[in-house]
Amino acid sequence: MNVNLSSPTPAAPPAELIKESSDRAFKADVIDASLEAPVLVDFWAPWCGPCRALTPTIEKVIREKAGKIRLVKINIDENPQIAGQLGVQSIPNVFAFAGGRPVDMFLGNLPETEVRKFADRVIAAAGPGKPRAGSIEEEIKNALGAAKAALDGGDLGTAAQIYGMVLQHQADNSEALLGMARVYLKAGEAEQAQAVLDTVPEAARTGADYLSIAAELKLLAEAAALGGTADLAHKVEAAPDDHQARFDLAIALNAEGKRAEAAEQLVTLLRRDRTWEDDRARKKLLEFFEAWGAKDPATLKGRRLLSSLLFS
């Protein structure tokens, strides 16, 4: 796959999602830019209290949308021409541009929920979200696909390189951040994975990928405080009803990548004592499933074993 994000003249750094503009730059920053993604134009002035209250709300919504829509701020005291042409008489006044023309607007300091609804409406009206051929959005989409393919194929170096290039253009791209965190996890670098995960935007911290990585890092942290699998296995062999040792062994096995064995140990614990410590073994098994992902072979096997036990 051709990924051209390493061009010496990148098209749109992350800051371009939110920028100050002027009458002179309006065509490039708004008209031309809206051919690639919708653009909100926030007409404001330093003396306007409602403007100062509204702008952070709009910026928050723009960052949440991760490139689906952009924001351009224009100080009407310094740049009265475009505001006059658009008939701006009071501020804050926000115009939406898509396809090179104004498509919607609102007046006043709206609450965050209403600003988000407005942005969503503009994004939906602009089209199905397919990036324009040759645009930076299309290149990023293709690059993310190539990075995921490399990651799935075990080529961590290539995946990291591509995710890194994407993040040079969109520092808050949640898919690239999660991909980079996954690269670090697969490379056995949990601290770096956690550091990257901590930079994922709040709005993206609810998806399956984020929750899976967070759960895996939590399990690795727990395993770091335990002994090695050999010592724990000896404890379990010597005392099969030492439930804590078996529980710890499952966590340690998971940290070594022995997922199926980890699941088997917890199912065995459940078979011996389903109610141990308020169903702790079953809850931990569910944490494993979340960390591994629904389609992982160990998850599928573990769910079969759990179902067989619970419904036998």
What's the gist of this structure?
The chain is 57% helix and 9% strand. The chain has 14 helices and five strands. It has a five-stranded mixed beta sheet, with helices on both faces.
Map the helices and strands.
Layout: E1 18-20, H1 26-32, E2 39-44, H2 49-64, E3 70-75, H3 80-85, E4 93-98, E5 101-107, H4 112-126, H5 136-152, H6 156-169, H7 174-186, H8 190-197, H9 208-224, H10 229-238, H11 243-255, H12 259-272, H13 280-292, H14 297-310
Helix pairs in contact: 2-4, 5-6, 5-7, 6-7, 7-8, 7-9, 8-9, 9-11, 9-13, 10-11, 11-12, 12-13, 12-14, 13-14
The helix-strand sequence is EHEHEHEEHHHHHHHHHHH
Portion in strands: 5-15%
Shape: elongated
| Strand ordering within the main sheet | 1-3-2-4-5
Please, could you describe this protein's structure?
This protein has 312 residues and is an alpha/beta fold. 57% of the residues lie in helices and 9% in strands. It is built from 14 helices and 5 strands. It has helices spanning 26-32, 49-64, 80-85, 112-126, 136-152, 156-169, 174-186, 190-197, 208-224, 229-238, 243-255, 259-272, 280-292, 297-310, and strands spanning 18-20, 39-44, 70-75, 93-98, 101-107. The protein has a 5-stranded mixed β-sheet, sandwiched between helices. Helix 2 links the parallel strand 2 and strand 3. Helix 5 (136-152) packs antiparallel against helix 6 and helix 9 crosses helix 11. The radius of gyration is 26 Å and the shape is elongated.
Question: Can you give keywords for this protein?
Answer:
single chain; 312 residues; alpha/beta; 5-stranded mixed beta sheet; 14 helices; 9% strand; disordered N terminus
